[in-house]
Amino acid sequence: MNRKSLTIAATTVTAVSSAVLVAKKVKNNKKDEKINTYRNTELGKYDKNDKGIYYTNGNYEAFARPKKPENVENKNAYLIGSGLASLAAACFLVRDGQMPGKNIHILEAMDLAGGACDGIFDPSRGYIMRGGREMENHFECLWDLFRSIPSLEIKDASVLDEFYWLNKEDPNYSLCRATISRGQDAKTNGQFNLSQKGCMEIMKLFMTKDEDLYDKTIEDVFDEEVFNSTFWMYWRTMFAFENWHSALEMKLYFQRFIHHISGLPDFSALKFTRYNQYESLILPMQKYLEKHGVDFQFNTEVTNVLFDIKPDKKVAKTIECNVKGKEKRISLSENDLVFITNGSCTEGTIYGDQNHAPNGNAEIRTSGCWNLWKNIAKQDKSFGHPEKFCSDIQKTNWESATVTTLDDKIIPYITNICKRDPKTGHVVTGGIVSCQDSSWLLSWTINRQGQFKQQDKDKVCV
Fold first, then answer.
1. Which residues of 260-277 are buried (b: 16+ CB within 10 A; e: fewer)?
2. What is the share, in percent, of the chain residues with pLDDT greater than 90?
3. Dihedral (C-alpha) 234, 347, 135, 445: value to the nearest 10 degrees?
4. How far apart (Å, rounded) are the C-alpha atoms in residues 226 and 160?
5. Which one of 7, 176, 368, 396 counts the least CB within 10 Å of its CB?
6. What is the pLDDT at residue 29?
7. Range with lowest mean pLDDT among 124-133, 153-162, 305-314
8. Is residue 25 scored above 50 in pLDDT?
9. Cα 24 from chain centroid?
């Protein structure tokens, strides 16, 4: 046998030996599989991810009180703005984080808490509400929070108790979702009027990956099969969508509210507070926080948060703000927490009144939160792109008006449409009534009256 033949033979023997070793491993693995024929589905359930978070479900943990975080007494929290999100964060810091109230500082540009959840009586303009949040059963965090916030209306009850009892006794639903021809029932009859093709367009959007929808509008994913449907009229008026808005946002709304699709036509999916959301939701939270010693700093407009940016982390170092016209800087350490609500649907509101349209010469109140986000975003691209939301005023603004009746002239027309007496204190329209033939997408609503605690019982707020 020559040298070449010897080499081939040696290789063949090596390959056979390897095959024998592999076969033995496979046999051993099969033996191990026979021993472990089950998988413990609870094992590893509470392992934390790279952010230190684990996920759970059920009320086992919902009602358990967390352990007090180590060294929480030596931390400070700064919350920029005093809207619903900021106040909720402060309440959770008190209740679950067990942080001393005096260590929690809420910095608010205006002289009133609440942000977009407003509801005030202005002596020069009357009652004002810039809008209202639509609520439903599955606001898990909100209801978890409000079971701990004492009601200001009912002794020894929580805000959740008050809200739950109200909506059980006076359930919400609409008797007229849309009108045509100046107040005639459009007789939408709870129908979506979607073709098979339209349904498929919606399902395709629902299943599309987020990154495939970046920079796409709703017009890019839907055509007239959806846009001509009654479903689109329901949806766009309820959630304030225009055809040129974000397709990704549309998808996220679909996924968030899919369980309530059948309740869209008559708003039976929705629930509302007894009074405006400032008095029913914001004030109870504010009173709860003040009772725990939380520091509210009004007339404090935060203009920037300066970060120390490194490849592996970003640390907030300084809060820059304007306090009653004077510049102020708040120094931060890594031991401090900063919560920022970026952007707002009521930022830069321009007010009109009974005799003046809301134009550039009207009074402008601004919290500056869009400028704050822009200043933060300049420091690092990972802080987002605020210009996507606020650079085109004509495509991002919205208009609202609060009309207060002074006599009974208009009440019979309202009663004829909503089929209910507006002055009973119960559900009236049950949500917005949309004028289907309005090129402005005009909708109007009347919540339970009085909408304000001090409201004259003979007046109705629309």
1. beebbbbbbbbbbbbbbb
2. 67
3. -50
4. 38
5. 7
6. 53
7. 124-133
8. no
9. 58
CB 292 within 8 A of CB 101: yes
Q: Supply the Cα-derived Rg of the chain in whole angstroms.
A: 29
DSSP secondary structure string for all residues of 355-399:
TB-S-TTS-EE---HHHHHHHHHTT-GGG--THHHHS-HHHH---
Rounded to 5 degrees, what are φ and ψ at 365? Answer: -110, 130
Q: Is the pLDDT of residue 194 over 90?
A: yes
pLDDT, tens only, 406-416: 999 999 999 99
Alpha carbons within 13 angstroms on the beta-carbon side of residue 321 total 24
Which one has a higher pLDDT value, 154 or 367?
154
Distance of alpha carbon 263 from alpha carbon 238, whole angstroms: 12
Which tokens belong to 332? 């931060």
216 half-sphere exposure, CB direction, 13 A CA radius? 18
Predicted confidence at residue 33, as pLDDT, reads 52
Cβ(161)–Cβ(282) below 8 Å: no
| DSSP 8-class letter at 246 | B
* Measured distance CA(148)–CA(159) in Å, rounded: 8
Report pLDDT for 17.
37
Q: What does the alpha-carbon distance between residue 158 and residue 136 come to, in Å, rounded to a whole number?
A: 18
Statement: residue 383 has pLDDT above 50: yes
Query: How many residues can be counted in the chain?
Result: 462
Q: Among 188, 167, 281, 291, which residue's Cα sits nearest to residue 237?
A: 188
Active site residues per annotation: 134, 253
DSSP 406: S
The per-residue pLDDT for 367 is 54
